């Protein structure tokens, strides 16, 4: 099972890399493609963060039920 917190961090780093590359590109189509890639990485980061929150909620619920 992958670690969604690490995955989110990885995706955010890749998004930043794509943004940085886009800043240095003068060709409009290439720059737009890099910005789209960065946006996709951001979406993956958001999804991984949501997954991490859900896992945390599940663990908390299970812990509460185990104590009850």
Walk me through the topology.
Blueprint: H1 4-23, H2 28-67
Helix pairs in contact: 1-2
Report on the architecture of this protein.
The protein is about 90% helix and about 0% strand. It is mainly alpha-helical and about 70 residues long. It has one domain (about 5-65). The two termini are about 30 Å apart. The mean pLDDT is about 95.
What would you call the structural class?
A: mainly alpha
| Poorly predicted runs of 5 or more residues | none
**Count of helix runs:** 2
Major beta-sheet overview: none
Q: Radius of gyration over alpha carbons?
A: 17 Å
- Which band does the percent of strand residues land in? under 5%
Instruction: Work out the count of structural domains.
Output: 1
Would you tell me the overall average pLDDT? 93
Shape: rod-shaped
Number of strands: 0
- SSE succession: HH
Work out the helicity level: over 70%
- Cα(first) to Cα(last) distance is 28 Å
Notable features of this structure?
68 residues; mainly alpha; 0% strand; rod-shaped
Concise synopsis of the structure shown:
Helices cover 88% and strands 0% of the residues.
